[in-house]
Amino acid sequence: MAETRTITPPDDDLSPGERLPLGRRFRIVLVLGLLTALGPLTIDMYLPSLPTITTDLATSAAAVQLTLTGTLAGLAFGQLLIGPLSDAFGRRWPLLAGIAVHVLASVFCVVAPNVAVLGTLRVLQGLGAAAAAVVAMAMVRDLFSDRAAARLFSRLMLVVGVAPILAPTVGGLVLNWTSWRGVFVVLTVAGVTIMAVSALVLPETLPAAKRRNGGVLGTVRDYGRLLTDRVYVGLILVAGLAMAALFAYVSGSSYVFQDGFGMSEQQFALTFAGGAVGLIGATQFNVRLLRRWTPQQIMSGSLLAGLGFGLVFLVLAATGIGGLAGILIPLWLVLATVGLAMPNAPALALSRHGEAAGTAAALLGAVQFGVGALAAPLVGVLGVGAVSMAVVVFGGMLAATLVYFLVVQPHRLPSGRPEPVAAVVH
Asked: In 10 A of CB 22, how many CB atoms?
C-alpha cells in the first residue's frame, strides 16, 4: 500500500529522488528513459517506409507526408491536454491511458485501408506518445530539483539524441523482413512493453493532497499564470529556439552534404552520426559540469559559445572558406553547445512551478516542439543549401541568447535550495 510522505530536504540538499535506494532509483530512471524514447520512435521508425506506403495505398507523397504532420500535431496538442490531467488525477493513470491509446492506434495502423485512416491514427499515436513525454518530465520534477533534475534531464537527452538516429535504422531492418505494416507491429510491441514496465516500476509521484482539481477553468488559470511568469516563458522560449537550431541541421543536412558536397548515403550517415555524437556527448558532459557550476552558469556559457560558433558557421558557409571542414567543424560545435543548453533550460523552467509540474511540462514541451519544428520548413523557404541552414542555425542561437540574457536575466535567478516536496513512496 502506498503511503504519502512529505520529504523536506536536509542540509545535504538531497532531493526526494536522490534519497531513494540506488537500485530503485536506477529502475525509475530507466523507465523514464523508455517513456522519453516513445515519441522519437513513433515519429522516425516509419520514415524509411514512406515511399512504400505511397505505392501500397495508391496515394501521393504529399498525402503520406501529412501522416507525419499528424503525428507531430498529436504530440504538440497532446502535451497541452495531458499535462493538466496529470496534475489533476496523478501521474500514473494519465500516463497508462495515453500509452494504451498509442498501442490501440498502432494496432489499427497495421490494418489501415487508406491514407486518410492512417493519418487519423497517426494523430492518435502522437497523442499517446505525448502522454509519455510530458508525464516523464513531470515525474522528474516531482522527484528531483535543481542540479539533480538537470543531471537527470542530461541522461534523458541521451535517449532523445540516440532514438531518432536508431529508429530509421530499425525501421529499415523491419522492411527487410516484412512490409511497412510490420513497422507498426513493432511499435505496438514497444508500446505494450513500455506500458507494462511503467505500471510495474513507476510509483505515483503526485499525492492526492497536491493534485489540482479546478476543471477547465482551473487549467486555463494555470496556463495563464505560467504565461505571466516572465522567467518561465523566457526559459521555454530558449529551449525552443535552441531546438530550432537542431531542427535546422536535421532538415537541411541531407541536402547540404549529399547534394552540395556529393556525399553518398553511407558517407552522409557517418557525417550525421558525427553531429549526433557531439550533441549527445555534450549532454552527458553536462552532468560533470553540474558538479562545479549551476545550470544558470552553464546555460550562459553554452549560449554565448553557440552564438560565436554559429557566426563562424554562417561566415564560412557564405564565403566557402574551408570547404567541407569549414562547414562541419563549427556546425558540430554549435550542436555541442545546444547539447549543453537543452537539459538545463527545462530543469530551470520546471523548478519554478512544482505545484503544477504537469501543466508546466506540457507548455514547455509544446513550445519547445512547436518553435523547433518551425525551423524545418524555414530552411527550405530560404533555399536549400549551406547558407540557408547556417542562417537558421545562427538565428536560433542569436534569438535564444537574447531571450536568455534580456528576458530571463540569469544573474537575477536565485542559486536555489530544494524546496519541501511531497512524494509518494511504497
From this structure: 8
